[in-house]
């Protein structure tokens, strides 16, 4: 079985269904990589999370079963990223897989940079990532925040009019839980989103 390791919005089931319809995901942790907020190549309206090799770091995410015949299509969708074949020892399984992993791939940013005023961290994107983590556990959401670097003041609260195209169907209870976690962990950047 081939798996893709998702470490951002693909953690969220609703968001994942757009790329991997019908596929369940399995909690996992990737060792040897650090997650960062970064402006997106060719996009001046938002930042997203990316990963880069870093020996002593790890990031949580999900393993998504994938039909290898569609890799070329996925590579096209992930332009600006390199598809990397992972070694089994890099991936710590946190839930049981239905079939053993023959191959596990991850997409690694070719370049990354701090979010800027024209490419802020969008609250609507962060909400999607954290909703996915909360489906696993609150601790998983906290781990996502702690294992992500480059929290900056270019953080935009766009919940009322989401700029992230896949921010939908997030219920009030999830948003309340997300806000509670963010308030608890405000020390990450000692700032809050700008309205």
TrEMBL record:
Domain Gamma-glutamylcyclotransferase AIG2-like: 4-114
Taxonomy, superkingdom: Bacteria
The protein's name: Gamma-glutamylcyclotransferase
Source species: Agarivorans gilvus
């Amino acid at each position: 079985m081939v798996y893709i390791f998702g470490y951002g919005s693909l953690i969220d089931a609703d968001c994942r269904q757009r790329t991997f319809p019908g596929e369940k995901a399995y909690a996992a942790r990737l060792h040897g990589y650090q997650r960062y907020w970064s402006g997106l190549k060719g996009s001046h309206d938002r930042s997203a999370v990316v990963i880069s090799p870093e020996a002593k770091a790890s990031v949580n995410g999900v393993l998504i079963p994938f039909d290898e015949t569609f890799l070329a299509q996925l590579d096209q969708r992930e332009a600006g990223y390199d598809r990397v074949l992972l070694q089994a020892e890099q991936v710590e399984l946190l839930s049981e897989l239905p079939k053993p992993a023959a191959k596990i791939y991850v997409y690694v940013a070719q370049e990354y940079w701090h979010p800027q005023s024209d490419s802020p961290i969008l609250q609507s994107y962060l909400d999607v990532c954290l909703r996915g983590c909360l489906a696993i556990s609150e601790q998983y959401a906290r781990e996502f925040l702690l294992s992500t670097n480059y929290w900056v003041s270019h953080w935009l609260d766009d919940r009322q009019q989401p700029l992230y195209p896949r921010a939908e169907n997030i219920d009030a209870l999830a948003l309340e839980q997300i806000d509670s976690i963010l308030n608890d962990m405000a020390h990450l950047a000692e700032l809050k989103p700008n309205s």
